[in-house]
Records
---
Amino acid sequence: MNMSLAKRYKSVKLRINSDQLILLAVSKRQAVEKIQKLYALGQRQFGESYVQEAISKIEKLSDLDIEWHFIGPIQSNKTKYLARYFSWVQSVDSNKILTRLNKQRSSEQGTLNVLLQLKVGGEDSKRGLSESELLAICAQYQTFENITIRGLMSIPAPTQVYSEQLEQFKQCQQVFKKMQRLIPVDTLSMGMSGDLEAAIESGSTMVRIGTDIFGKRESP
């Protein structure tokens, strides 16, 4: 067993220090063998950002009881693959994508869990919905046959200043509470390796950790 992987994983679990908060291991650009080793340590939720890479891994590891999450930017022409291969899609940033996922998800697979991506931090390059756009989707939301909106996810602007991290995460928490008044949601996905503690303090229910578990990513 790769003890450095085991030690990193244990260290992240200690930082989280909660059985209630879900740890999503971000395995993009990581070898299949590392995923297998982490699975052997008890990890079941894994996140991927690149469709073709993810499909290859999912097919190779189909014998394992892994819950796969897609967390990357979504292209309309790739939604059929997300609907087929994943249990969760965390980065839904339009009603168009939501509708396509519902249409393309097979009823035989059970419902697809989705999170609406909230844009915070004011970065022009960041994808995501504004608060008003996100809440408008919730207000008009009719329960689709094949998808369930479970909550929101966000990738705030990077900062090492704890108070700034808290400020951005508090915005997410406030929008999440507004969502709860409109539809039944239970998942607030926020927090990564560099801002894990601030996310937990701000009410995150799921954190997405890559480098601090796996180490440096492999080249494409």
Note: The CA atoms of residues 76 and 97 lie 7 Å apart.
---
Amino acid sequence: MYKQGMKQQIPLYAYGTIDELSLPLQKENALGILGAQVWVNDLPNEQNTRFVADYRKKHPDLRPSFYGAQAYDAAQLINGAVVAVKGDLSQKDAMKAEMEKVNFKSVRGSYKYGNNHVPIQSFYLIDVVKDASGELFLKTAATIVENDQDRFHDKCPMK
């Protein structure tokens, strides 16, 4: 029903239902559907630009997904902790303390943890568009919120 004209009458917003993994299957049906995400391929920071370029070089017909960006950041976070303890993984408290510092440059841009260990990060409005060759991709339409912290962090007993 949405495909049969409702799209022009009722806007549809999505979170996580349209991404670089599902877009090839949704094709033209995804055009004009806005969404929200904490990472998009076109975020203008050095780490993201390099990550996307390296990914596309290895996989020319694909764009990295949000899940790939999360995994990349997670690997950087863990690597920083392992380096800080010189490979001694028995130093769990030291590793945790190092991870809390977020001593790496995220592909998401600004990124840190709140007192409850929930990320403080920006959220972006994304749109499905076509590039000059007709390929569909996700484009950052706007920044929805910058450095957003969850609304319940002050109720969290973690210190």
Note: The helical segments are 6-9, 23-26, 46-58, 66-84, 92-101.
